[in-house]
Specification:
Number of domains: 1
CATH architecture: 3-Layer(aba) Sandwich
Distance between the termini: 27 Å
Strand order of the largest sheet: 1-3-2-4-5
Radius of gyration: 14 Å
CATH class: Alpha Beta
Helix content: 25-40%
Oligomer: single chain
Structural class: alpha/beta
Number of helices: 6
């Protein structure tokens, strides 16, 4: 098991650890992520954005999107304010996104649609899915 640092707004850690950002993850996504991190041997920083207050810390969210090595955006759980930013976040190469919607324009912005977090196992091992 790795050394896992859990970070929420407004905090940031400036380490050389691999960084993940989970944006409004469902309980299922959280459980999958937790199970997958059990295989990681290096320390990791996990940022979670799931604000419950009305005013969102958008500056924090956008800066961590750029700091993170991997961003997982669970679109279906996002409030309207964050969905308004979804296309911007999804357009980043490090963002992987989930939705139950069958008809989505996000497919035009990014091919990084995922249905679960199994890709993290491949990423952790350094395996390229296209190989």
């Amino acid at each position: 098991m790795s050394n896992l640092n859990l970070i929420t707004p407004p905090d940031k850690l400036f380490t050389n650890n691999e960084k993940f950002l989970l944006i409004y993850p469902s309980d299922d996504v959280k459980e999958q992520f937790n199970n997958l991190t059990l295989n990681y041997t290096s320390p990791i920083d996990v940022y979670i954005y799931e604000e419950t207050k009305l005013d969102h810390d958008i500056d924090w969210l956008l800066s961590v999107c750029h700091m993170a090595d991997t961003v997982v955006l669970d679109i279906d759980n996002c409030p309207t304010e964050i969905r308004d930013l979804a296309s911007y976040i999804i357009a980043n190469n490090n963002t992987f996104w989930l939705t139950n919607s069958g008809d989505s324009y996000y497919n035009k912005l990014s091919v990084n649609r995922i249905y679960n977090l199994d890709f993290l196992t491949l990423k952790e091992r350094g395996i390229n899915e296209e190989s």
